[in-house]
Each structure stands twice: as structure tokens, then as C-alpha cells.
Amino acid sequence: MNKSHTEIWESCLRIIKDNIKSIGFNTWFKPIVPLKFENNTLTIQVPSQFFYEYLEEEYVDLLKKSLKAVVGEDVKLMYGIVVKNGDLENSKPYTVKLPTNNTNKLQNKPVNIPSSTDTPKNPFIIPGIKKIHIDPQLRPELSFENFIEGECNRLARSAGYAIATNPGKTTFNPLFLYSKNGLGKTHLAQAIGVKIKEDFPDKIVLYVSSNKFILQYTQAVRDNNINDFIHFYQMIDVLIIDDVQDFAGKEGSQNVFFHIFNHLHQSGKQLILTSDKPPVDLQGLEQRLLSRFKWGLSAELLVPDYETKIKILKQKIYKDGIELKNEILEYIASHVTTSIRELEGALVSLLAQSTLNKKEITLDLAKQMIDKLVKSTKREISIDYIQKVVCDYFNMQVDLLKSKTRKREIVQARQIAMYFAKSLTKSSLATIGSQIGNKDHATVLHACKTVNNLIDTDKAFKVYINDIEKKLKM
């Protein structure tokens, strides 16, 4: 054998490249550096301990075949694992004699699992190698059609829809959705799964909460079925994991999910994750897992603005076959400001009160119900709602307040909106300015001074202010 270590490795790479997907080749073989070939042993440098473990777990057969094809029988492979500063200083070499059989590769072996009526059906254990039906754990009503789009969720929804039409083929992999509770991240995650199952019925889709994953993993360890548990997940085409923050402190679950994540990602499968915090703020999770959460797109879902809340309420009553006056919907939307879940809950409570007590749904009934549901009747009105009320009063579009026009009537409406935002909300001057016309804090201060001066000197203007204030405090 007169070939150099570089020539041997290049020949191996040509064989490997023909046998795996390009994403796997680029990720797991391009970073490898051949170091030497001595005594029928090829030494290669890999970036980390995990890199070595993953190669041994996933690609040892391919390595064995390619090396034997290029060098011949009895060839050995040595790994130099980089520990520090990208060199082999302080590294730990591993000599691996290529085995005749791959004992590290997970096999889909038949497993006999006793059934029990006392325990819930376990969808994660494979009773053998035959193809089984996997319940995707999806709720059909949580679809894109029932998901109202607004400024609060446009990025997340657009990315989710792109994934649903081309799963595993976009740059949004994983898609990491995060928000406070009740803002629709679970709905959106499920909507992606629902659409994929509709358009790609052969795809294996699975939605599962982190807590359920942890429980099933614990059971698999207890029953000595961990290989089957892992292999089950490796069959999934679209994996949706809800509330990944619950992995915090669960080292075993994190470790197994890390390997499942890598396998699915390198196989071109789609991962969708949800959390109550962005990856950078998650505590108790391994850094190697957090870094993978950042590989794709992280998209936040915010509290819906006033217009979006109105759309949500209108869709809800339309589906329930109910008619309500706009003033009632506007009252609910302006008073329930925390989450979509509480918004819909308020509407359901109002409908229940009307039905059980056989009362007509009026604005007065809505006020009575909402005042009981909202924690404090002294509420903070949103800036979006203030702009809506001001623009309705002057019969103009809200977009005009955000435009650069200097028309007198629009400038005055913008100043009035800033005045009420300062007096009725806890928002900073900078926040008020950014949301009303993209102005700075000095402009907001000037607007408030102008409005106060006009209240003192212009009777007609003072009437405007009093009328708008009454509408805001209805």
C-alpha cells in the first residue's frame, strides 16, 4: 500500500458520499481530517467526543466497508479527538478494530411487551419489526384554518406553513416556537402536523409533550427496552415536541433526545419544538442540546393586538352560530389583554351565562361578566386599542397614524393617541413613540404638552378629548 493517508481518506470519502445524503456527508465527514496511515492503521481527527460516538453509532458500517474497499482486510481506524483549541494537544486517541459485525448499531428487534389494562397504551414501544400504525396525537380542529394570523404571530405562522408544504426541506429545521402560555404555540405546532398529514398521508407525524416523552423514556429504561424506544423515534418523519423546557434537569431524557434529534435532523426529517422561553433563556438544559435548538428558526408568538383579538372572537361566534354586536366584541377585546385562551374563555363564560339564565347578551351583561373575570377592574388599556378608538372617532384608518404624512388632522389624531397612551398605560415614552408613528420620546412629550394646551384653550378640542376618554373607559 503506497497511498498516503490523504489519498486513502479521499478514496474513502468518494465511496461514503455515494452512499449517504449530502447533508449527512457534509456534517459528519467533511470536518474529519486524516492524520497518518501507519501499520495498516488510519488515524483521523474528529472535532469532539460526541462526534466520535455518533460516527461509531451511525456510520461504523459505512466506514468499515469503505476502508476495506480501499485498503483491504484487517485495516484499523484510530480517532484523534480534539479536546482543546482545535488541535490534538491533550487529546485522547482511540484505536478501533473494525468489527465483522456492527454491534453498536441499533436494531429493530422484535420485542414482546405484556399488555396491561391498568396502564395507558404506550405508543412508543415497537412490538417487533412489522410496520405498525402510529397515532399522530393530533387534534384536527387545531388547523391553519382555525389559526388567526396577525402581527403577533405572522413570522411563526408563515414559517410553519412553509414547513407544512415542504416538511424537512426548508431551512426552518428545527422550528422553535416560544411564547407565554395561551398564545397559540401548541395550536400552531399541531396545525403544521395536521396539514402535513392531509397533504402527505404517508409521512409519519407525531406530536408529544416533553413530560410524556420523559415518562415513556423512564418506562423504557425500567423495562430494558431503550433500544426499541430510540428506534421508534428514528422512524418519525415529523416530530413535534411540546414544552421542551420540561426537559430541564432530566439528564437521561436530554441525552436520548439529543441522539434522536441528531438522527432525525441528519436524515432530513422535520423537528418542531415549543417552549415558554427562547433557547437563550432556558435553564437546566445541556448546552449541546440548546445549540441544536438554534440551528433553524426561533419564532416568538406575542400577545395579540386589538384587531387580531376581534378576528379571533368573530371566528369563534361564527363557528358557534351566534351573532353578537360589535360593541360587545370590542369590549371583550379591550378588557381581556393577557392571552388568547383567556379571551376565548371570557366569551364562553358570557355565552354560558346567557344560555343558563336565559338572558339576552347585551353590553351591560358583558361588562358584568368581564369585570368578574378580569383580575382588576382598573385595567391597563393597550396602545393598539387607544389608536383604534381615536381613529374610529375621527373616521380614519389606523395605518395613517403610522404613516409619515404631516396632514394637520392626522398629526392631531396621532398626538391625541400619544396623550392617552401616556395617561392610561404604563408604557414608556419610547415604547409609545415606537408604536404610534415610530417617533421618539421627545415627540411624545411634545404631543402631550400640545394636547394639554389645546384642552385649556379650545372648547371644541376639549369635547373631542372627553368623548374619546369616555369610549376608552367604557
Characterization of the model:
This protein has 474 residues and is of the alpha/beta class. It has helices spanning 5-17, 22-28, 49-58, 60-70, 154-165, 185-199, 210-222, 226-234, 251-266, 287-293, 306-319, 326-335, 340-356, 363-373, 383-393, 398-401, 408-424, 429-435, 441-457, 459-472; strands spanning 33-38, 41-46, 76-81, 92-97, 175-178, 205-209, 238-242, 270-275, 297-300. The protein has four domains: 5-97, GMP Synthetase, Chain A, domain 3; 154-300, 3-Layer(aba) Sandwich (Rossmann fold); 306-373, Helicase, Ruva Protein, domain 3 (Orthogonal Bundle), CATH 1.10.8; 383-472, Orthogonal Bundle (Chromosomal Replication Initiator Protein Dnaa, Chain: A), CATH 1.10.1750. The protein is elongated and about 100 Å long. The model is unreliable at 84-131 (pLDDT under 50).
Please identify the oligomeric state: single chain
- DSSP strand count: 9
N-to-C span: 89 Å
Q: What structural class do the secondary elements suggest?
A: alpha/beta
Shape: elongated
Give the biggest beta sheet.
Answer: 5 strands, parallel
Give me the CATH architecture of the largest domain, please. 3-Layer(aba) Sandwich
The portion of residues forming beta strands comes to: 5-15%
List unreliable stretches of 5+ residues.
84-131
Q: Count every helix, treating DSSP H or I runs of 4 or more residues as helices.
A: 20
Lateral strand order in the biggest sheet: 6-7-8-5-9
The proportion of residues forming helix, as a percent range, comes to 40-55%
What's the mean pLDDT score? 81
